[in-house]
Amino acid sequence: MAGWFKPWHERGIVGGLLALLGIRNQLRRENLYDTEPELEKKAPPGPEDRRRRARMADGTYNDLETPGMGRVGARFGRNVPLNRGFPDTERLLEPSPREVSRKLMKRDAFVPAEHINLLVAAWIQFQVHGWFSHGPNQKDNQFNIPLEADDPWPDSERPMLIRRTQPDTTRTEESKHLPPTFTNTESFWWDSSQLYGSSEEQQAIVRGEGGKLHIGDDGLLPLDESGIDITGFNKNWWVGLSLMHTLFTLEHNAICDRLAADNPKWSDDDLFDHARLVNAALIAKIHTVEWTPAILDHPGAIAGLEGNWWGLFGKGKERTFGRRFDTFRGIPGSRTDHHGTPYSLTEEFVSVYRFHPLMPDAYDFRSLTDDTVLNDATLALEDVTGAEARGVVNAFGMANLFYTFGTALSGAPVLHNFPDGLRELRRRDGALVDLAAIDILRDRERGVPRYNDFRELLHLERVTSFEELTANATWQREIRELYKDDVDAVDLQVGLFAETFPKGFGFGDTVFRVFILMASRRLKSDRFLSRDFTPEIYTQAGIDWVDNTTMVDVLKRHYPELEARLRGVDNAFTPWQKQGT
Predict the structure, then answer these.
(1) Residue 24's domain is classified under what CATH number?
(2) Is residue 395 part of a domain?
(3) For residue range 31-84, what is the model confidence (pLDDT) as tens digits?
(4) Which domain holds residue 367?
(5) Residue in 435, 463, 436 with CA at minimum distance from that of residue 450
(6) pLDDT of 190-211, one tens digit each?
(7) Quick check: 157 and 437 in contact, CB under 8 A?
(8) At what angle do helices 119-131 and 398-407 cross, to 10 degrees?
(9) Is residue 376 within a helix (H) or strand (E), and if so which, with residue range?
(10) What whole-number distance in Å separates Cα of residue 128 and Cα of residue 140?
(11) Domain for residue 385, yes or no?
(12) Residues acting as catalytic residues
């Protein structure tokens, strides 16, 4: 019986899976909280048949009974009780977010994650841009962050100002009991709005003819007036996003060609709607059974993640059997279930997806032909962001860039590994920001509990000492000094980056608790990824495309020159073999 009390990740595959199922069920019962009591039942009208069979640009009508659920402008939900979601206003700036950045986050030297490549970093930013954004922050309402005398922050930028999150303008008298709430400028559904846009207006800009998305004869996306790729969401741009957006724009267009061959009488809208469904589902599948398992290299976690998509019976089984029991047959094709709470993503979900340490500060772009450094140049992060990204693409070519990202390593999400280029970042509007300090302050501002409270509310034991928090003696001392010997004051991000990860994991068990809950919820609540993942909605060709395509297939389809480097690569997010090795 003693082994029963081991952590789930020390119990073996079967014992670990059973424990994970129990943890997920408890989280579903106790960690889904609705912040939108006035959730509208109505949504903008549209052609009834299209609402039933296609994703709407603004996310409405995914749930046909509550068409406003998950729409653009909906509120973020919570994974902690609402009475625990209020910000601690007395300690809002304690310790100083800037000092947390300087003393705990600042990169001393790049710490790589040995089992994942740089595509992992590009992919996750590509994903979160389709999931959530709190929108532009307030220019006329800012936090004034005190700076120490020895702080190297430029004198011309003092004092350090951090803009507050845009307030929720939808609150009414019925909302007065709620903690501060914030709204999403994107839809919450896994609909790849980062490619397609979150409004009819943006969708019209990215759409071409024959159901396809605009792409030039050079195989690249068109540029806006600032020199950045035109796509559904192009904020916080860098070359990694150029790769992902271009790749899956090409994939959408390839899906259109396949569907048009089978359905020559289909309209432009028919082709676009079906290709979007297929492309979005493929992206969701790649994230579920490839990206996440690359980071969580643990047999029990991988079995659980693959089970979300394929079920415990595995790939290739008929989805028509046991549709109610997604544990055995996978969530796609099973009944839709919100588990008693209207679907949304949560403030806690946003917090655990802060993976900025994945990004390096220096980039050596290498030749696919001989692995030499192209142009004998090492570029800084600022040289591959914003409008500079297109120059990098033009200089080195997409195939060389994918090869570089496939063979380079992502950073590890640990303390002292936050990119310097993001700790002193000049935004497109000219503002100079420290993104590490902002990450710390955003959790406090939005009422996300600090590390120990966060663990307790997700049914993990609180840590009682700095030695229990982290095995790194230097970090113990640094955290204790900054937080004045109060382990309960440690910020969520600090705790997440400091804690010891389970064997094979690229992040800790605290983050994984939110993943356990929300990874299946994003599939189970979305009818296009649950009950309507059927040939009647997708076509059989569409279902087959999703089921039979991997990230490696997508890369080879559009950049066949990568074939040799991808030979023997089972997961595109793990390090590829270098040319000449």
Answers:
(1) 1.10.640.10
(2) yes
(3) 999 998 766 555 556 667 888 999 999 999 999 989 999 999 999 999 999 999
(4) 2-60+73-566
(5) 463
(6) 999 999 999 999 999 999 999 9
(7) no
(8) 100
(9) strand 373-380
(10) 27
(11) yes
(12) 353
